[in-house]
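Appendix B. One record, verbatim.
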Amino acid sequence: MKLRTLVFALTILVVSAVLLPVAPASAAAGDLPAVLDFRLEPLSTVPLLRAEPIAAQALAAADAFGDRPDSPYRFAVPQQVAATCADDGRWEDPTPLHRVWRLRVVAPGALSVNFGFADFDLPPGGRLSIYPADLRGPDDERGVRVFHSGDQDMLGQLWTPVVLADDVIIEVTVPTGSAAPLLRLAAVNRGYRFFGEHPAEKSGSCNIDVVCPEGDDWREEINAVGVYTIDGIWKCTGSLVNNTRLDGAPLFLTAYHCNTSMQQFANTVVVYWNYQSPVCGQHGGGSLDDFSAGAVFRATYQTSDFTLIELDDPLDPGFGCTYAGWDRRDLAPASAVAIHHPSTDEKSISFENDPLSVTTYLDNQVPGNGTHLRITDWDLGTTEPGSSGSPLFDPAHHIVGQLHGGYAACNNDLSDWYGRLFVSWEGGGTPDSRLKDWLDPLDAGVLSLDTLDPALPELAVDPETDLSFSGFAGGDFSAATGVYTLRNVGGAALDFQVSADPAWVVASPAIGTLEPGTETEVTVSLGSEAAGLPVGVHQAVLSLHNLTNGMGDATRSVTVDVLPVQPGISAVAPNPFVDFTVIGYVLPTAGPVRARILDMRGMSVRDFGSLDGVVGPNELAWDGRDGQGREVAAGMYVLRLEAPEVTLQAGLTRIR
């Protein structure tokens, strides 16, 4: 079969709709390529598409010139092709219920191959499988990639993860009699470095594998970081980030310079999770089996070198991914940790134990234009090309920036620069140029947010406000109630308990279980013991506990003001007064109250008319003026309050 040229124009799509969940692609047990399920025709009968050989020397020379501190890291070279199920490959019928189509792609000299399908639409029950031609079994470490109907992105396309082979089968299986699949292969991307290279070409030996003990305190943040490819050609590092909804929206933070046209190419993104060494110090042996394909552009800002995308499939819980926290304050951390993929190899961790400085990019002057954080030199580990876009964490485990570039490497003490999250928060002032709209969709105004681990049960309590009640001594307090909503924002069930000290506060339900994503209302009231409280202000502490792991434990205060049974004037302050005084009084029943200021002869000086009186404490203010707004003379006056069941009086003294 001859190679044909295809003019492949990617459409720029602005997406604002809510993402609809679809099943993530995976090669699960019982979901295997047809070649492992059925007896197919010999491999020699499968039509061949032969890609151009890789020009290794020319590529190495170009990379030596192009790998600057802030240049994207190329790992593959593309070749445009045109192949469809209708016109290319070969169909066969291994059973009366199944049809299978195969095309063999050979890329001489390639370390890996990935594909771009300009059209991808399978009928129900169909699947696409991509695997090495000499497949060794369902767990072939070189990669077995399986996709289904619904795995296409919002443009109707599919960009695949790599298979670590230069001889690959593209296979489609559909039920007999189903609609014809729409499959148009547009790009064969041939890897020449990054995945599958010789161990001698791995990242520098000073890098610290995240599986090493140095990473123990950072396990949650490590699980947020992934390495990704763009357009099947370029690659960088990035991180999932948490948002104030705590809803696990798959927002992914990386660097602007990794692809300056991410608005156009977000749908081509493939993120690999858990690509890390299985043994400390191995600097290799990582698995590429956990991946997410396809994303939607959200925001970017060149000045602070950030880009934010949102993956268009929900994450497989089996990946164990977390969502990193962040801090948007104008601070320079006292130390920092970087989690990254050096040369986009297996994940590493680096430590800077000295204070960071605020500078201009690639400049040491403080504060410069204030857009970047400078790492003077790494104390443990380093970064490399391919680490670009990786998150920088402060001592509180919050992201404060992402790697823009620098000169750090093993065996040197040179600097790196990170675009500041503080600057990216407001960015260019629009939703598509700042982080604010996406990381704080509730407009909560928080300055920092912790890492979210959806696999762990976590308690959230709303509202954050305390409770306050009042009533008469010895009275019935049963009507005094408040409500808190308890939510499980984690990924596993939790047991909760609500208790109070002292015991005159009662919570119902006091114990219970919350499944992931569920909530319940807890009513807080004053028990019968409240009737025995003496006159005065009393406070209790309400404790809301996550009994499973303590995540999200909270406290609220409950205050009750116990009033005297007898009505009366509770306070006059100040008294004597010059310009202003406030009179507090207590009523046994609600109703109208006539309030007047009288002089010592009993003549009315100021008539406030009829006021609305409430049960319990009330207040009235007097500014020392008569009914015509004139200041009264210094001297003694009487406040008279006439309520339905009581008349109250208090003496007032005005001084000059």
